[in-house]
Structure formats: structure tokens, C-alpha cells
Model the fold of this input.
Amino acid sequence: MGILSGKVVLITGGGNGIGRDCALIAAANGAKVVVNDLGGGLGGGDEGSAGPAEQVAQEIRAAGGEAVSNSESVTSLKAVQGMVEQAKDTFGGLHAVINPAGILRDGMFHKMSEEDWDRVIDVHLRGSFNVCRATIEHFRDQQDGAYVLFTSTSGLLGNIGQTNYGAAKMGIAALSRILAMEGAAKNVRANCLAPVAWTRMTQSVPVKDEAAAARRAQMAQTIRADQPARFAVALIADAAKTVSGQFFGAAGENIILYSQPRPIETVTKEEGWTLDSILSEALPKMSEKFYPLARQAPAPQPAPAN
Done:
């Protein structure tokens, strides 16, 4: 028994990193799990392998849980539809999707190839579309379903060298928000999670100086994959049924709620704006509220005093 008893969950990217921990934690809490992982490299160009997904599924079964593996790619809608059918055929249904599957092909935008742009968009944004499109009608028909899609601070806050990744992740945030709005009447929930964790994806980011190396060493000890995975699994539990349409973050033991874009300043000129007045009045008036180019992450809040 557990908080996910009776639930069937599809977890993509479940062979490594956060996805692996999502699968293990979900199963340990009573879920029947379809562990999907292509088994390729971070760049998405390697031929896949069934090994990582099956290894996690075997680990779950060895611990007394129920799991099957799938090594198809989320970039194919047909393949994801097959994952849904696998869940139904094996476990009799599907109730939730956790979708951390992803790749990186980093580079400054002025040097980025069309292939590197397309491949990242294909895996992250198209992949998120595929897992949602393949499941949404089933969730609506049964009036029960939950999505945890993975965004990133590279999209929410920006990150140099990751225009393709950041653009995809902001698109996923919008997808999740609108899925939540459209699904509310049918008890279909969607939330986004921007994780920070020590995974092979984190390790792939180049270290440029000693300070970065020191930060990485600290991350390996204090920011683990199981921490955001635990939060992702909690979001699909029935106890979280009132939580939908939100953008969360998880880093170490910090759980973050992100703001969502809303107007912060409006300037009006009844007689109409001219180019000169826009430049001399509107932009200067708004400038005090401009966001700086420097990336600013939310500061952890201290625990309340007892």
C-alpha cells in the first residue's frame, strides 16, 4: 500500500537521473510503472538501448513492485501511443504521466546549427506534446489524470548557451498551463517542475573556472536527483488534486513556487503614442521595472522559527 496504490504511471526518461528516481519512488509508493527510456546519449544522436529502462523495471520488480520497460522515443506520437496501450494491456489503465525525458545540445545562438535547434525542440517540446496528446483523451474520458511536465530555469530565467533548450522549456510551461486550464472541468491536472539536480545532464555542462568546479562538487553532495523526483511523484497523488496549473522548482530540500507572467506596468497616452513619445516617455517610465539581463534565481527562504 502507498499513496499511489491503484495508480498506473508512465515515466519517460526513466532509465537515468530524475526519471529513474521518479520510477523507483512511484513504485515504492504503490504505483504500477511503465518505465520508458530510449537509452541514448545526452545529445540524442546515439542509437538507443533497452538496457536502462529494463534495468530500472527489474529493480522495481526485485523490490516487490510492478513495472514494465519501454525503449521507444518520445519524439514519435505513434511510439507514445504504444506506451499508453502497453500500460493498459499490462496494468489495465493509466492515471498519470511524469515526463523528464530530455537531451542537451548547447551552444551560443550565433553558432547554433539548425540540426541542434530542431533536435532539442523535437525531444523536449514535441515530446511533451506527444505524451500529452497520446493520453489526454483517455484522461478526459475517465475524468482522472495528472501530468508533471519538466520545464527549466533555462527557460523561466534564461541561461547563456541554451537558446534551444530554454525555448523548448518555456513552450512546455505554456503547454502545461493551458492543459491545466482546459482539463479542469474533467479532473485532469497539469503542473510544471523546474528541477536542479546532480545528473548526467548537469555533469555535461562545461566547467570554465575553479568557482564553477567548486559549485559542481557541492551539487554532487547536496542536490540529488531523488529530491525533485520525490516532489514530482507527490504531485500526481490524489492528495494533490487541488494543485494544477503551477510552475514549481525543486533544488536540494528547497521547493519553489515560480511566478507566472502578468502585467506589471501599463502606460497610456490618450492622444496616441508617437515614436518620439514612446522613446522619451513610455520606455523611461517602464525602465525602473525592467528585468536585468543577469540571471537571478529565487533565494531560498529561511525556515520559520519555532
